[in-house]
Fold each of these.
Amino acid sequence: MSEDQKPIKGKGKDTEKEKGGEKEKDRAAKKLHKAIDGLSKEQVTQLLDLNPALANELGSRSNDDPDSAADALKRLGLQDIMTGLASSGKNAKDMGAYKFWATQPVPKFGEDGDLAQSVEEGPIRIQTVDEIPKTPAPLLDGFEWSTIDLLDDNQLKEVWELLNGHYVEDDEAMFRFNYSTSILKWAMMPPGWRKEWHRGVRASQSRKLVGFIAAIPVELRVRDKVLHASEVNFLCIHKKLRSKRLAPVLIKEITRLCNLEGVFQAIYTGGIVLPKPVSTCRYYHRAINWQKLYDVNFSPLPPNSTPRFQIRKYAVPDRTSISGLREMQKKDIGAVQDLLTRYLAKYDLAAEFDKQEVEHWLLHNKKNALEEQVVWTYVVEDEHRNITDFISFYCLESSVIGNNKHSNVKAAYLFYYATETGLTTSVDKEALKSRLNALVSDSLVFCKQYQFDVYNALSLMDNGLFLEEQKFGPGDGQLHYYLFNYRANPIAGGVDKRNRLDVGALSGVGKTQI
Ligand code: MYA
């Protein structure tokens, strides 16, 4: 499948403007044009493979014709080209330009050779709780720190409002995540959550919430070491306060708050390149309501195709195929936790979940009828009443910006899954492939029943075994995984150097992020 689709969840857009004067830009543009002239057809094709956003910009026809792609490249502005050119990924800067990140305990670009040899894994900076300041750093005049109580519906709504208007958009500002209040509670209040780790910045006079960052606890396994860590998410600054270096202040504050609880390592993800990803996965999208996705400019109409053909291509069966497949119930928690734990053991990067966490993350809480459903989990129960498989997805809508016809796209995100088929002593890849295809295909039936428009998945876990067969197409978004204060060797993200699905070497990432 070659058609590129825009990411609903391409986390992070470039917030850094190109620096330097016009003359310098002209000189650089000339140099670049010369460099493009020197590229072979194969190199142009490779360049576009590595930069789906850039290929998208050039239009699908240039994709097949390297000569016209090279011409189109020259017509693009310097900044557009630079956005996609850096060899280590979109928006990568020189290490010196990361003024904040250069001061943090994270691996740097260029150190450890960056290439073949492996490094000793472990913490970068060792500290004790006694060394950590008990009070936050001061904010700009007119702003103050505020701990947000998500149990208070008014404060929950304030966070929702900030994120709804100012959180992650795609590169062309066509879609913005629209996390519902239910998903915010689900994502930020798992077992062990702490109110102090929901940190906001308010304008002192108006009391308006203008900045936010959150962390949750996670037992994170990196290869054979389990880290008592946190997972940082929902960093957001009001659009009017951007580029004022407030993000580093929020990041340092959440670091302090984690450190005070004896947590010195963290995991976080983003669509932008920072020093230095431990893994990079690619987004894939499976159209369900193709017509709507086309109407909102999410899915293109490929050349030589027709809307009718596209709609038929993405048709979903009415019924599931696996016998014994049913919705997960409370009584399944123990079996699902056991199966998931054994399944996640094969990945280099994964969370360790206890039973309470499995209940929180996977079981839809039917008691609370007022809360909309966030997560859907289906188990397969065999004739001996054993749970042999499960699959789950969660709902995350995106607002469609400035479209007359539709205001929202309802996306299902593939979450965790596991199957006994992948756990037999001599793992039979073909059997695993066929079982995963059946599970994902059946989950698609439920996605359709619940009126999702699109099913999104990353190239992580064993997804390479079913993405193409289940008609997931590559998106232009990437998700970079980062570890804070922990040096680790790279972990496969499921795509090769040319950003294509690497079925031969599946991903080592077994950790999903919301
Ligand atoms: S990822 C989602 C991030 N949120 C969005 O994309 C929402 C829309 N954008 C915004 O709200 C703003 O643009 C943000 C930046 C807030 C992103 N992760 O204040 P600035 C660095 C890390 O002038 P602004 C998520 O939530 C940037 O490289 N750093 O910029 C996970 C530069 O530093 P340097 C980022 O645009 C978050 C500096 O900030 C990100 O006004 C994980 C510029 O600051 C980013 N996504 O605001 C956070 N974007 O000079 C790290 C920009 O060095 C957690 N920057 O290049 C680390 C672990 C902490 C806990 C540790 C416990 C032990």
Amino acid sequence: MSVFPSISLKPEVTEYLKSIFLNNEVLAAVHHQQAERRFQKLLTCLSHPPSYTCVRASTHLAPLEEIRQKLEEELKKQMSSSSADEVQILPHPQITDVLLLPVVGPRPVKQLSSEVVVGAQCGSAVLRGAHVFAPGILASPKYMRAGDVVSVFSDLEEKCTRAAISFQGNKVFVGNGVAEMDRSRIFGAGESPRGVGVRMVEPLYQSPSFDGVLPSLVFLQNLPSVVVGHVLGPRPGERILDMCAAPGGKTCHIAALMKDQGEVVALEKVRNKIDRIRQNAQALQLKSIKAYCFNSTQAVSSDPAKETEGPPFPPESFDRVLLDAPCSGLGQRPIMACTWGLKEICSYQPLQRKLFHAAVRLLKEGGVLVYSTCTVTLAENEEQVAWALETFPCLKLQPQEPHIGAEGMPGAGLSPEQRGLLQRFSPELSWDQTEAAAPLPRRADGDTIGFFIAKFLKT
Ligand code: SAM
């Protein structure tokens, strides 16, 4: 059993990621050892949560300071009276709709003999402040009753069978909690019950739970994702396309930045994710969002003269387009294990290019296209930019505002000037356990999920 692991990857994937740093003429030629160290740091920091929880505040509904105070009151209610004074909520020094909450951890938490095992996705959510919801539970003690105190472990390799009594596979401890349901209820006949199965009382990483907290005023969102909305720069009255929209975090941010005036078209291929976009829009009181289930690679109308409300759309229909592309997700944190092989990791580049073709066609001349991913590979980031600049001579890279991440990585044939216009959030550049107390803004801006943003103008 791992106590504090680096991310566990298939060897072929490790080698592939390593090659980004070590087969890279610019990085490796300068300092081979430094490149190796940077890669090792990346593996370690990916398995840990970022050191700040970021929430986007609905500044279209209330001023930031008012939201900060309300949030503080709500979170104090959540905490025990002894720790209530510890709630710290900081505005971001540059981004006017962001509040940051320091994450405390890893804390010394004693493991108990009663074990609940949860799926890897659930385990990652617990490390970011969530409680354990019943559907995430895979194994529990045979006679577990509501009220029992248990240790929670995350199954790293998806090997634990549902309703097991114990599990000896590769698992990692994420904290202690109190069961809110009997085992018989969790694994009874039919679907798992909804709701909290284990309420975390001693999580390894202390971070507030935002479940049901001020639903119209705060939205849990990674810092780089909030940066995307600002970089896109939507203005009231515009028509914007969000091509890959679910669950709608960026769609809602775009609508909020437009003061809910204009139109945000949100497309999503997976039907059962559409409701999430609509629920989020409703919770945040945004009416300018229109969500459709549609494959965005097909979103350009073959009959350009035909105007329709929904997709497909005639070419040049939108003032701005966001392509927050489906990707290998290797920047998400914490990911303690990835069971994918190289084939899956490399499968996204062609799809991203198809989506890119549609994005460029749907954008008006003079319009802005933002491409983003939550992964760290060159193939899905800088290589895509190099390909796009060659394939679409009408696209010009643009400076980004705010630019709080690092520049683009070398190795994809882009010039230093071009790389300087890209924004890559590279947590390994700032991540160091000994720096846990580093002050804002450096640590909050650097120790984020791995992310990439490119902004283009269609000339
Ligand atoms: N932008 C979202 C947000 O901020 O909440 C996250 C988007 S996620 C990175 C990519 C989404 O694209 C997934 O929900 C996936 O189902 C969807 N997707 C994948 N292929 C698609 C396609 N061809 N057309 C539309 N959506 C697609």
